[in-house]
Amino acid sequence: MSRIIKNNKAYDSGDVDVFIEGVPLDVVELSYGTDQEHQVNHTLHNDATSWSMGKITHTATMTLMMHDITPIEKAAPDGDILKIKPFTVTASFINDYNVPVVDSILVKFKNKGREVTGDMGLNKQYELFAIGIDYNN
Hints:
about 140 residues, seven-stranded antiparallel sheet
């Protein structure tokens, strides 16, 4: 993943705070992005004569420690995080020069489960259904 550099200070994971509906959360990993369809348009000639842009699709994943997801599961309808209505995840980046970047992602959980390994500190990556992303709002 590339770094955002402003004022010669690279933003890094130590600069990030993550909130779900305003509640701070320790997140192992948060990844989100936006893609837009692009196509070339042809006429009867061989080469493209123009291009068009199409639908926009957002993606997101979030890796949480088991001790952070279990309270969310307990608060979910019937204990099922898949039944939680769309919620906002806010990622706030502030570097040593107090230059803020705040992104808001409207999501809901697409999967649930556990990932049990021999490592200490159990965590799982959750795929999120990303409805919209507001970059640097």
